[in-house]
Write a structure and sequence with these properties.
Elements (H helix, E strand, L loop, with lengths): L23 E8 L10 E6 L5 E5 L5 E7 L2 E8 L3 E2 L3 E6 L4 E3 L2 E2 L1 E2 L9 H7 L4 H10 L6 H5 L5 H14 L1 H4 L5 H15 L30 E6 L11 E2 L5 E4 L6 E5 L6 E5 L8 E6 L5 E5 L4 E5 L6 E5 L18 E3 L5 E3 L5 E6 L4 E9 L1 E6 L5 E5 L6 E4 L6 E4 L8 E6 L5 E5 L4 E6 L4 E6 L7 E6 L5 E5 L4 E6 L4 E6 L11 E2 L5 E5 L4 E6 L5
Parallel strand pairs: 1-8, 1-9
Antiparallel strand pairs: 1-4, 2-3, 2-5, 3-11, 5-7, 6-10, 11-38, 12-13, 13-14, 14-15, 16-17, 17-18, 18-19, 20-21, 21-22, 22-23, 24-25, 25-26, 26-27, 28-29, 29-30, 30-31, 32-33, 33-34, 34-35, 36-37, 37-38
């Protein structure tokens, strides 16, 4: 389990989200165009002052309830893919007051930007351009917000692609040459250009219905609270709570920022890293001394935010010879701080590293290759998951530096995130294997749990105090929960397409925090109140 705020399990939301002991409530029903109950509509209440959103789902009887709202004015709306309704504005609530609002859904249009990444991969036209986008671009974002949601001519797409090649040179420099760029531009122009060959709606595609996935009644029992980033294109990769309840956010965008969110007010203060060019801040985690450490994927640096000076100091790691400035030659993805204050960093297709702030030196562990997730156990030993075709999980003995690795039962599973439960059990997510796996360090045995769906792709990963495993599906745009006692998996809808969540962090109040980079939001989820 993460050392950052992972002390309590998820709790039922009975009184409030983050605002204190208030009990204002908005409730009502949602009905479909025929007047029947509408299951699975997201009902969103946004405080017009703080701009904080609360999202809940309507149940099988069409009922919804948003509890624990602070006094204020709200805008309330009901949304569902392929449906629309009129928003309610100027909804004023005093302390202890309740408001009843019913929504009648009207038939709308399913847009290409409404789809999941999985649906897009199934329905978008095949071609070399699609293959390049999937391999090189969809790791950070999908097609929905940056492609399907806009229209450009060929020159516009060329400008967009070349901009990405410039700001993401460290990642794309070795992968997208001029010929590949031309192929991508041509594909984007044909698919999403002003003269797009796509039908207006994906519902016109013969295979559309086969990509749909129903949600259970249990899946309606979740609430999401979200915060907008202070500017566009921030790409918040995660949201990690510190000991004071503030939330730290790495900005993977080109602004080289980390943000500090006050969950009560919704205010985000940002701090800029000094790196010249795109840093690609992938991870930002608070340390016990009040500092915050960050990982710069594009520049192969770690950085430290000083709580006294409020400035970031960066430390440059070395590159493979001849690959300076490229992520293939060196990068930093995820970091964790161990018991002695050393900073462990992962990097795809590079080695596990540790940075010692006492000496300002990096050490490399070539026996731990292509690690992605990393966590520190109660004895201070780092555990890692190797994100590659024959990837294993492993441990570094903190006393000797020895690396020991174990191969998962499923071959070609690409282990990605790794977590350590309070009882010492190791859990990891098999991204391409579509499974969550348990490893017992005492017996050195595995047990795997198959996740449902056409493309489970578990990415963000966390454990609650009830020992349930939570994951985001990278391609299916949902959040899942595995009960390891029963093996039951519940899949929950997410309020937006293209969630692209990278990490989960549990805070002291039992709220599971995330970043949704493509949607430029951070937030948390909890099980909804049950009446």
């Amino acid at each position: 389990m993460n050392a950052i705020g992972k002390s309590l399990g998820l709790v039922f939301l009975c009184a409030s989200f983050v605002y204190g002991a208030t009990d204002a409530t908005i409730s009502g029903t949602v009905k479909d165009p025929s007047g029947a109950p509408f299951k699975g509509a997201f009902v969103q209440a946004q405080n017009t002052k703080t701009r904080i959103y609360v999202n809940v789902l309507s149940d099988k009887l069409g009922r919804y309830q948003i509890q624990g709202l602070p006094p204020g004015e709200y805008e309330v709306r009901a949304n569902a893919v392929g449906y629309k309704s009129d928003p309610r504005v100027g909804v004023k609530l005093g302390g202890g007051e309740s408001s009843s609002l019913d929504f009648a859904m009207e038939k709308g249009v399913v847009r290409w930007s409404d789809l999941s990444v999985y649906q897009g991969k199934k329905l978008l036209p095949d071609g070399k351009g699609k293959q390049l986008l999937s391999a090189e671009c969809f790791a950070c974002h999908g097609f929905q917000s940056r492609m399907a949601a806009t229209r450009r001519d060929a020159d516009g797409w060329a400008q967009a692609v070349n901009y990405m090649r410039d700001v993401r040179r460290a990642r794309l420099g070795n992968h997208i040459d001029d010929q590949a760029a031309a192929t991508i531009i041509s594909y984007l122009n044909d698919t999403f250009g002003v003269d797009s060959k796509l039908p207006k709606s994906p519902t016109e595609m013969p295979d559309y219905k086969e990509t749909l996935r129903p949600f259970s009644d249990e899946a309606m029992k979740i609430s999401y609270v979200e915060y907008d980033m202070p500017g566009p294109n921030r790409m918040p990769f995660s949201a990690a709570p510190d000991k004071n309840g503030m939330i730290w956010i790495p900005d993977f965008g080109s602004g080289n920022r980390i943000g500090r969110l006050d969950p009560k007010t919704g205010e985000i203060e940002e701090f800029v890293a000094p790196n010249k060019g795109t840093a690609g801040i992938h991870s930002a985690v608070p340390a016990p001394d009040g500092s915050v450490w960050l990982a710069e994927q594009a520049s192969n640096k770690v950085g430290r935010w000083d709580p006294k000076t409020r400035l970031i100091t960066e430390y440059q790691d070395s590159y493979k010879s001849g690959m300076e400035g490229l992520e293939d030659g060196g990068s930093k993805h995820t970091i964790r701080v161990d018991h002695d204050g050393r900073v462990w960093g992962t990097a795809v297709f590079n080695n596990l590293t540790v940075f010692d702030p006492k000496t300002n030196e990096f050490s490399h562990f070539p026996d731990a290759f292509s690690p992605y997730g990393v966590e520190i156990d109660k004895d201070g030993n780092p555990w890692f998951a190797e994100f590659q075709d024959e990837g294993k999980i492993g441990k570094v003995d903190i006393k000797t530096g020895k690396v020991t690795k174990w191969a998962p039962p499923t071959a070609h599973s690409w282990p990605r995130r790794i977590e350590i439960d309070s009882d010492g059990t190791i859990w990891f997510a098999e991204y391409k294997g579509g499974k969550i796996a348990r490893f017992d360090p005492k017996t050195e045995t595995f047990k795997e749990f198959q996740l449902p769906g056409q493309s489970p792709t578990p990415y963000a990963f966390g454990i609650d105090n009830n020992h349930n495993l939570w994951y985001s599906s990278d391609e299916m745009d949902l959040v899942g929960r595995l009960d390891p006692k029963s093996g039951q998996v519940t899949e929950f809808p997410f309020p937006h397409s293209e969630n692209m969540m990278k990490e989960f962090f549990l805070d002291a109040q039992g709220r599971m925090w995330y970043g949704s980079p493509a949607n430029n939001k951070v937030g948390y989820f909890v099980p909804a109140a049950v009446n």
